[in-house]
Amino acid sequence: MKGTIFMSKFKLSNIPRGFAMGISDLIPGVSGGTIALLLGIYDDFIASVSGVFSKNFKQSIAFLLPIVIGMGLAIGGLSSLINYLLAEHTMPTMYFFFGLIIGIVPFLVRISKIKQTFTMKHWAILVAAILFLAVMALFKGDAAHGAPTYIDLSTPMLIKYFIAGICASSAMLLPGISGSFVLLVFGVYSTVTYSISEIVHFNFQALPVIITVGLGILVGFLIASKLITYLLQHYTFMTYAAILGLVIGSLFSVFPGIPTSGLTWFASFITLLLGFIVSYVLGRYTEV
């Protein structure tokens, strides 16, 4: 983990890292920040986002551009496949990500240096972060209501879309919290996804929703990235304690339930094990 120093060159190797982050952004409950942490670019990513509107904007853009390209390729190329897997093979797919999250915990324990640095206040922050996401997992917002037949463009709703965008983008930068999950909690997830699909089909009536949420996301990125950068600089191990708690707490929202058939049990166990091995091995060889 490099702290406040971030890479200043365009690196092609960051395209596959962005690709992996893009895949995670397609999964409600899975955080792109978790994947960035696992791949060893989290601190650099946060510092670069924070530096876009600073004197270091050229270095920041150079670092972020290949990540954005990778994310775009993943979202554009794999969204149909991920949607198919989530719809037709929900349990094995979600258990893969469940295992992926479990496998990152040993890496977080290592970089947090728990035995040397953690005191009662660190453990309190960790437990509070776990409980926060555990409670959030109880609220699913509009997830079960399907696509809306009417988009409310009243001023109060536009304000709600803007605030939801701020909170969702802030969550995307934090390991353990999914931006799409925050939209679910706010009750605007189906409206936003429906609006995106309408824009793709050249129905621009939903454009105000996309613009409002987009502005909120931009503001959230700027505010959250600077705050996280500050916390990593001045309260490093307390921040790691919060991150570890958020990652563990995210298991409550990702857990898909108990398989109901023998075949599903077997497939889920295999994908869980595969996900764990992937993240554990990556964590073992990630430079601290």
From TrEMBL:
Protein name as it appears in the record: DUF368 domain-containing protein
UniProt entry keywords in alphabetical sequence: Membrane, Transmembrane, Transmembrane helix
InterPro entries noted in UniProt: VCA0040-like
Record keyword Membrane present: yes
Residue ranges crossing the lipid bilayer per the database entry: 20-42, 63-87, 93-111, 123-141, 153-174, 181-200, 206-225, 237-258, 264-283
